Amino acid sequence: MDLATLWFWIVALFFVGYFVLDGFDFGVGMSLPFLGKDDVSRRQVINTIGPVWDLNETWVIVAGACLFASFPEWYASLFSGFYLPLLVILLALILRGVSFEYRHQRDDPRWKRRFDTMIVIGSAVPALLWGVAFGNIVQGVALDERHIFRGSVFDLLNPYGLLVGVTTLLLFFLHGLYFVALKTDGVVHERARRVARLSALPTILAAAGTVVWTIAIAAGRPSLLWATIGLGAVAAVFLIVSVVFSLRGRDGWAFTAGVVTILTAVLMLFSALFPNVLPSTIDPANSLTIQNASSTPYTLQIMSWTALVAMPLVLAYQAWTYWVFRKRVRRSTIEAAPAHA
């Protein structure tokens, strides 16, 4: 395996980490209207991700930085062609982050409701648009011979892109419900289980459609067709397994199966994309591939040594953070705390 191919999969793993970790953040944010029927319940839901949401978001920064350094052509074409959706994602993430920090600054129900609404919007919009973006990356866009996007933002709202977007929205929502059920007690815990049961079937149907359609796209790029089929099958199986565990009240196993579902689903998308990084729908000769979009071997070599040193430290710090904040967020603790906490 050459360095360009290696870095294609390293970038994929960074996005896996981002969607697994920030995915349940999005789900928790989207679940707020369903689980938080009073201020104590809403604070209990938000506090499940309070210590970790900003750490989870750093994965997308690292993924973007690695994409820029290892595949500058891919980065340039992607960010110019997808400028508006990515800008909307960025604004939504800012809106969500500000809301987490400001909702408790004033003991006013209307003040808190406004920021709670922004948390929901700031969670749902990225969950949808990340799926739309990756659906278009896999399917391909209108790239000319200079690798310039010749379509419009409305071209990105095609059936496959929207299906992947709806799938990520529902999948992250379910993933977040599993996390809330795992991390809370009392009425919020029971509501999370109940809403997870209700959202399971739509999520399975959307995911099944995405897997079948993605395999159909990958059939035209036979390099990793069997890997795409296998990863799609594993994702589908573990999604069903997560639902079964949830129904049986095994919250930890349901969340773990949800992690495997998202991990294999993202790898399925990258396998369907390989060996391209951004296919062209105008002419296959215009497509960006791993080889023609990558940096020089020397740059990739330096990045490889840097990643070898830095990644274990990042993973160790992330694991330590989750270990420190591993306890349940109990309703009695929230009730005993000041209203602004």
UniProtKB/TrEMBL annotation:
Subcellular location: Cell membrane
InterPro entries for this protein: Cyt-d_oxidase_su2
Main enzyme class: oxidoreductase
Record-level GO BP terms: aerobic electron transport chain
Keyword Nucleotide-binding carried by entry: no
Molecular function per GO: electron transfer activity; metal ion binding; oxidoreductase activity, acting on diphenols and related substances as donors, oxygen as acceptor
Pfam families xref list: Cyt_bd_oxida_II
Transmembrane segments: 6-32, 77-98, 119-142, 162-182, 194-218, 224-245, 252-274, 302-325
Membrane topology annotation: Multi-pass membrane protein
Record-listed E.C. numbers: 1.10.3.10
GO CC annotation, single: cytochrome complex
Keywords carried by this UniProt record: Cell membrane, Electron transport, Heme, Iron, Membrane, Metal-binding, Oxidoreductase, Transmembrane, Transmembrane helix, Transport
Protein family according to the UniProt entry: Belongs to the cytochrome ubiquinol oxidase subunit 2 family.
Name assigned to this protein: Cytochrome bd-I ubiquinol oxidase subunit 2
Source species of the chain: Microbacterium azadirachtae
